Amino acid sequence: MLKSISKKDFTATNIIIIITILMYIFQINLENGGLYLGLNMYMIVADFWWQPLSSMFAHGGLAHLGMNMFVFYQFGSLIERGRGYKELIYVYFICGILTSLGSFAYVYYLDQSVNLVGASGAISALLGYVAFYDKAQRSGIITWVLLISVAPLLIGLPIAWYAHFIGFALGFIYALIRK
């Protein structure tokens, strides 16, 4: 029997996951949805000003969406329980949008053919935030960010490794400022 939904199920973490899934469904049902919602040169060429935010909700497939939401659930829930839902929302969206803008600078100056999709940069910001506060786990988190950023490149997967590093750094800095 399915469990009934209670008020405690409506955490910021779960709501962001639901919104991300709904946006992915919208993306795949919109012709060229990845181009409209991803982060690419259309941001300045066609005035797609929403892309720094919408790219956090667009994904490259179900596996990409699933992996990101799995990690988001772990770290989002941790931050929400320890620091509150407002702090999670602030760090996720402020650092996520700033990560998108930093990644766009990379795209603009080094590879204008790229279309960035995914929440990895914003999620990496959560990892940076947690790494700041949890010194015992810091080296493991840094190792994980290096692994998820470099290993896929070694097997030829097109990932935005720079978004992971930018996000991690921004999350760490955000925590330092908020301390």
Question: How would you describe this protein?
Answer:
- The termini are far apart.
- The model has no long low-confidence stretch (mean pLDDT 95).
- The chain is built from 9 helices and no strands.
- It has one domain: Rhomboid-like fold, CATH 1.20.1540.
- It has 179 residues and is mostly helical.
- 38% of the residues are buried.
Q: What's the main sheet like?
A: none
What's the CATH H-level superfamily name? Rhomboid-like
Mean pLDDT: 95
Query: Helical percent range?
Result: over 70%
Poorly predicted regions are none
Structure at a glance:
This protein has 9 helices and no strands. With 179 residues, it is an all-alpha fold.
Question: How is the topology of this model organized?
Answer:
Elements: H1 12-29, H2 33-37, H3 42-45, H4 51-54, H5 62-83, H6 85-110, H7 120-133, H8 135-154, H9 161-178
Helix pairs in contact: 1-5, 5-6, 5-7, 6-7, 6-9, 7-8, 7-9, 8-9
Key structural traits:
179 residues; mainly alpha; Rhomboid-like fold
